[in-house]
Amino acid sequence: MTNDPNRRTAREKIQALRETAKAKYEQIKIDLNNPIKRAVRAKKLADKGSGLLRGFIIFGLSFVIIFPMFRQITLALRHPTDINNPLIIWIPEQFSLLNFEISMTILRYWKALWNNIQVSTLVMILQIAATALAGYAFARLRFKGSNLIFWLVMLTLIVPPQTVSVARMLYFKNFDVLGIIALFNNGDPLNLLGKVSTIYLMAGLGMGIRSALFIYIFRQFFRGIPTELDESAQIDGAGVFRTFWNVMLPNARGAMLTVGLFAFVWQWNDVYFSRILAVSTSNFPLLTMQLANTSERLQHYLVFSGMEMLVGPDMRRNPLFVSLISNTSAFLMMMPVLIAYLFVQKYFVEGIERTGIVG
Amino acid sequence: MFVRMIDAIDVGIRILLRKITRTKVYNAISKTLSQIFFYLLWPINWLVKRTYGNLSFRSQKVVWSFIFLTPVLTGFLLLFAYPLVMSLIYSFSDVSINPDGGGLIIVFGGYMENGVKVSDFFFQYKEALLVNPNYPVELVNTIQTSVINLLVITIFSLLIAVMLNGNFKGRGFVRAVFFLPVIFNSEAIDMAVSAAGAVDAVLNSMGSGALSAVFDLRQFLIGANIPQGVVEFLTGITSAIYRTISYSGVQILIFLAAIQSVPIHLYEAAKIEGATGYESFWKITLPMVSPMILTVVVFTVIDSFLRSSVTPIITRMYNLQNYGLNAAMSWIYLASSILILGISVGLLSKVVFYYDERS
Q: What is the pTM of this model?
């Protein structure tokens, strides 16, 4: 039996296989104990794990951000009679733009939108102009005491606007500078309340919404530009203003984009200043102020416009309907900025490293 | 696309300008005009040459610095410093509107009682802190929330900035999403939605809890048969997270810029020495961005004080035309904000690390 040549070769084969397996096993064992390879493996695992964790957290948070917006849209597209229908969660049964119609009328949408665009754009330009000049002066055109002035200006950021606003309003009611304005206004001081130009005045004089922050950003940015640049411009015969206009400003596009975006959006969303300065009037409605009063105006509107018939008489007193209209109005207010943001977000988001907030 | 459009317009205007400048009529007109202006402005030109032209470049810079700072300085003096001082004076006095016509009657350092002045320097402050029932409570609330916000937002935004900084798929998209709350973080939207929410809350307290549920995640999760406790926990966290994200947009921006300005060679050296990502975060990223932590802390405190629940009380005092009490309240408010700022900056400035590339 043992002499069977076939059997022997089979046994040898098994033996050989066993040996190679053992060798491989030993190899793996050595590999496992090898500190270098172990470290490499641990690092790979840690990298993958942390990547996975990061992906999980980031996309989870993105979901948290996007979800309410998505919800707002799906809600806005429902017909008002479907609000109390528990069967509808995502996709509306009856698509309708009725909510949008009602919201647009209550907000006086097109007029208010046009006013908002006008005010925000002008404020943005004025803010950029005033703060870029000041930031450049603080960064490059230093003199004795310019640091002191800088910290004084930073004080405007630290002092909450509530502290100043009442005295400011009382001052604005009878606005005058050393009696000069009264000379041109039949001896009476000027009343600046209830005028849009007051907001422009504040933005142009660097006292708009968080202007001090913008001055800070511009200062840090201009400090980050190498001094060789303006020295060479100076050697080539450029004066101070020319250096600023032709050399520095073209380099500051990133900072200008950041500041411009913030100035625009904060003005767009602003309630505080629009309210205390009483800017939004019936002749000059602003979206934010219209939106803030939506739920009160809805009742009036439904009764007086006959829209009550369209949505049903019970609907007027339905709190869900009120919040539905509020939601839709909020969405309508956000939409133009959202669309504008989609255009500039790439330059904004990727240009952060060049804004030089850090210097 | 947006930038391309602007570029196209820019090129078009340039071509148009070139065509205009090449015509003969234009040349003739411009020549005569420049001559007229030369003779008209000759005295000014002479004056500028005699004074400004004789200055050294350093002094010229100072002159330009003042020109650049003019708008901000005027704004600071007129719209900030003057109202601030006036508000300080109001806070120590009894302010009332003159019944005979415009203007205010200010009794400094006391109040009128039956036509006799009672001298009490701090009576408005006493009234704000001791008599008014709501103000002290809301002030303590504000201080608490702002301290909590300070910790949570600073840590959260640093972590998010570190996560967003890495290179991963869909980075552009995620970054764009994370800055959305900055844009939509509007008081008006909050007000509109909460005005509607108030109606809901009333109905909910009367026992119809299902009403508000349509509008959030809760019903969705309950519908998916998830236990009540887990649902409460999740919805609580998501709303807290959403609020935190929407308040920490600027902070993430600042940290992201700070992280991106850390020299890469530091990380490379650490990697060669065998440091893990975790170690290099603690040993490199954190010390390098620590100056920015100071900035973020200051900004967060200011920001959370802006959203304070004290504001409505202060505004109500204005509407009641109790200007003195209003001023006193806002000065207490300012003092507490500066106190928190001072403590946190004092604590942090000991651990801040300033990196100098040259040393």
A: 0.79
